[in-house]
Amino acid sequence: MQILINGQWRDKREKIEVRNPFDNSLIDTVPAGDASDVEEAAAGAIQGFKEIRSLSSLERSFILKKTAEGLEKQTEDFAVTIAKESGKTIKEARTEVNRAVQTFTIASEEAKRIGGEIIPFDAVPGGEKKFGFYLRVPVGIIAAISPFNFPLNLVAHKLAPGFAGGNSFVLKPATATPLTALKLARLLLESGLPPKALSVVTGWGGEIGDLLVQNPNIRMVTFTGSLEVGQHIMSKIGLKKATMELGSNSAVVIMADADLERASSRITVGGYTLAGQVCISVQRVFVQEPIFEKFLETLLPKVKALKVGNQLEESTEVGPMISESAAKKAAEWIEEAVSLGGKVLCGGERKFSLLQPAILVDVPFNAKVHTEEAFAPLIVANRFRTLEEGMKFVNQAKYGLQAGVFTKDISTAIEAFRKIDVGGVMINEIPTYRADNMPYGGVKSSGLGREGVRFALEEMTELKTVCFHLE
Ligand code: NAP
Fold first, then answer.
1. Pairing mode, if any, of strands 343-346 and 358-361?
2. Which residues contact 303 (CB under 8 A, 6 or more apart)?
3. Is 226 touching ligand 1 by the criterion CB < 6 Å?
4. DSSP state letter for 306
5. Closest Cα to atom 11, ligand 1: which residue?
6. How far apart are CA 188 and CA 171, in angstroms?
7. Which of the residues 144, 369, 447, 452 has the least number of beta carbons within 10 Å of its own beta carbon?
8. pTM of the model
9. Does the beta carbon of 224 lie inside 6 Å of ligand 1?
10. For ligand 1, atom 40: residue with the closest CA
């Protein structure tokens, strides 16, 4: 595929190969963007911004609605591309397309609701003769940098609210999964997006990332990816606005009164969907002592039954990890957990990029599977005595994106909501649950700001005030 700069599709001599993580077969190539592409894209985005901000809300809403309709019509085509380049199963890929249809639809609705508020100037001394209001205005040109694991919907969560608010973009998709983003760009242009409002520069983040985020035309950076890269970007961007959607090692608390059947079924989804490569994957499971063994007995057969393999086969439930090196790293972390005294109940065997879904138990808290984000099809289960202790274990993480709590007791649920340090607490649900219209984002090292269309729109707009002096 070609790179998109200021409405023009271009080829380049230097290419990046996009490979299927299951068998390493070549899917396509994309141009390796360089400094000149970034500069040209960021310069063209000035005109793109002028054009998109001058559209009416209704016109912007219409472009987003048309994009949603186009995605819906091309569900299978997008799903196959997503599955091939990211390794997620074809069923997971279809779900992602359906979610992106929702994301664009919600954004088309939100585009019509961007307003302001009258300011009661006369409520403070000296304001008796003043009248005015504030409005939300676009921030301007936004650099969007996206990860490999949701190549469509996480790009949608940046572009859709951003365009709704009247911004222009330079997008840098993950190098492992650029094809879906380029297809989406084509669809946006076909749906009437002003051509210079979006450039998609493919290329290595380590090479062009700094140039992009430091470009003086860029007013805001919206980044989804790892903590390390997020911190690096924050150290480079000075006074630019930023939202950072980073990683996590999300926890679940299972109280003794929980519905174990539901908890184990949901953890079988949350721990292993996308081969565990979701920022809100279930990683740490804390089970109240009296039901520890019983919970594992309920969970184990479900996890063992998961069918691992080629992501394009309809029956596959867990596909490959994004690369052999990612799977190797996860297998090494399992070895480390065992060397520290933990036990493997099932899984952990690796074949190229496939890792068998693993359950680890009684792993000491200093092991990497506790302290870091595993981003792999594994969970680690430990016991706790009281709710207080369970919450302490959850909160000892440096991350804080979402958490799940299984209990039938309302006061336990409320206590957990109040005291667990995360962006969202899911009661009788896994942390992996996300609706595309809810505020979504983390505390601590999980990031800054919120996505979820309306909330991203707020991040991507600024308040502008007008005050009239009345005689
Ligand atoms: P990553 O390695 O941090 O890469 C994310 C993006 O950053 C890619 O486009 C990458 O480009 C780019 N990048 C790399 N170095 C850069 C630099 N120096 N400057 C600017 N950009 C740079 O993350 P990933 O492996 O793709 O995704 C997995 C991570 O994303 C996990 O930590 C996961 O938890 C997190 N995530 C968070 C959320 C959330 O909403 N909180 C959602 C999904 C994923 P290249 O591909 O060219 O390296």
1. antiparallel
2. 268, 271, 272, 346, 347, 357, 359
3. yes
4. P
5. 205
6. 13
7. 452
8. 0.98
9. yes
10. 245
